Amino acid sequence: MCGRYVIARTPGQLALPFDARVDDSIGEGAEPNWNVAPTHTVPVLLERLTEDGQLLPEIHAARWGLVPSWAKEISVGSKMFNARSETVMEKPSFRAAITARRCAIAADGYYEWQAPASGRGRKQPYYVHPRDGSVIWFAGIYEWWRIPEGSEDAARPGQSRPGRAAQKDTPGQWLLSCSILTREAPDPSSGDPHLAALGALHNRLPMGMGEDFAREWIAPDKDKDHTRALLERAVAHSLDVAGQWRMHPVSTDVGSVRSRGAHLVEPVQTLL
């Protein structure tokens, strides 16, 4: 599971390795946030189909928590911030997006909570991050949701739907949302101590990617067999990526979504 993460880099920094365009929609998603929670606006990398048929990488602003195109209310996305890799191809909420609308969601690191060994007491949050300070690109999926006219959601930041220029959509009509894919966590008895630590922390693991794999991941297709093979590779690749992550305990202040400062990732002493 991944329910809180950190993204403090600018959209320009994220776009540079991919020679990506930063969309005008980025707005709030450009603000550094050391405590991203579901429903927050975040930067995502996706490919946009232009009118002349070219695919171009772009950084867009997206709501974290996928809202299916057929949803009646935006609130359904508040619980769909993660998608299980084992069932993403079959779940009605995700199966269209995993084939045609894949994205990469940037993070400096993420938080996970570990329960006390006794089963009693307060859970301890940990910050998980690449040991070399590089960006994590989470394997993600995205959807476009048409904002109903006259609804309260119509006042939310919106944007034109990429690849739909011929329909002449106007800004504010569409909401872009996303979800992070997860996989089974490593075995706590793994021979790799870092993977074992992640396995002991939680039974689910967000799927990270390197830049090269992220480029391949975001390329859309309509071939389910290709998608299934790519997904299997992503699951395996994510374990190699996770092997480069490190973790340390942090303040329980991260439990409050009102806390968003850089102090949240600083190590703290614990009795665990």
UniProtKB/TrEMBL annotation:
- The answer to whether the entry has keyword DNA-binding is yes
Q: What is its EC number?
A: 3.4.-.-
User: Main EC class of this protein?
Assistant: hydrolase
Q: Which GO terms describe its biological process?
A: protein-DNA covalent cross-linking repair; proteolysis
InterPro entries membership: SRAP (IPR003738), SRAP-like (IPR036590)
What keywords would UniProt list here? Answer: Covalent protein-DNA linkage, DNA damage, DNA-binding, Hydrolase, Lyase, Protease
What's a Pfam family this protein contains? SRAP
Query: What domain of life does the native source organism fall in?
Result: Bacteria
Q: Which residue stretches belong to region Disordered? A: 152-171
**Any one GO molecular function term:** peptidase activity
Record family assignment: Belongs to the SOS response-associated peptidase family.
Protein name per UniProt: Abasic site processing protein
Organism (species): Kocuria rhizophila
Its organism's taxonomic lineage begins at: Bacteria, Bacillati, Actinomycetota, Actinomycetes, Micrococcales
